[in-house]
Automatic annotation (TrEMBL):
It comes from Candidatus Methanocrinis alkalitolerans. Keywords: Membrane, Transmembrane, Transmembrane helix. This is DUF116 domain-containing protein. InterPro entries: DUF116. The chain crosses the membrane at residues 12-39, 45-65. The keyword Transmembrane applies. The keyword Transmembrane helix applies.
């Protein structure tokens, strides 16, 4: 049996928890509305505040999306776009010679002849996929270019070359984790999501990739979005 003076204390505590839960739910609802708005319009309203919502209340916001029958992957997609949007200014201030690009191996042709080296797969620009031309073009701009078979290579290359900025290509979940990791190391990173996910023969919107690495100049070599495999 609790002493009588504890009753009001529990009452106040209960009320505080209830108010806090309501506040969190309201913040998640606002976050969900802002994310849906950004996804639909491509405009970012209060980008940093939105990113805080996404980072802190991700699970709750996804649950709200599911409750309303919407695809919760939108939350991850907008999260990546927000980070790209916020990072862009800092990214462009880094000289290209000090930047690195990480390509996923799943973008290669299934007949890729590249050999595995300690610095990832060594693309020989055989022409069977778009990576070879991208590598030649990016290296011409000054970038370091890696085709990474896994996150181990990425971490090793970051440790070895200490790039000042990074462009990462991958599926939304990989990019989200990678961009968040770079943020913790204070490296401005831009994520370019694949159009399809999977383990082999994935696709990339190459125009978007070239626009990103050339700082919005929309340049790049002639290419097909779906090269011959
Ligand atoms: S161009 Fe594509 S398929 Fe050819 S070596 Fe490079 S990564 Fe492999």
């Amino acid at each position: 049996m609790l002493p009588p003076f504890m009753d009001p204390l529990f009452y106040i505590l209960g009320k505080a928890v209830f108010v806090a839960a309501l506040a969190v739910l309201a913040a998640a609802l606002v976050g969900a509305v802002l994310i849906a708005y950004s996804f639909k319009t491509g405009h970012f309203f209060m980008a940093r505040i939105m990113l805080t919502f996404v980072s802190l209340l991700e699970s709750l916001i996804k649950a709200i999306f599911r409750t309303f029958g919407a695809d919760d992957a939108i939350v991850d997609e907008v999260g990546v776009k927000l980070r790209n949007y916020i990072n862009q200014e800092k990214f462009r201030k880094v000289p290209r010679e000090d930047r690195a690009i990480f390509m996923p191996q799943c973008l290669r042709s299934i007949d890729c002849p590249a050999k595995l080296t300690p610095e990832g797969l060594l693309c020989i620009n055989c022409g069977k996929c778009g990576i070879g031309a991208a590598k030649a073009y990016a290296e011409g701009l000054g970038y370091r270019f890696f085709v990474a078979p896994g996150s181990g290579v990425i971490k090793r290359m970051i440790k070895k070359y200490r790039p000042g900025a990074i462009v990462g290509v991958g599926c939304i979940m990989e990019i989200k984790e990678g961009v968040d990791l770079c943020h913790r190391y204070d490296i401005p990173a831009i994520g370019v999501p694949l159009l399809t996910s999977g383990c082999i023969s994935t696709k990339l919107e190459w125009d978007r990739f070239y626009e990103t690495i050339s700082d919005g100049e929309r340049s790049g070599p002639a290419h097909d979005d779906e090269p011959a495999r």
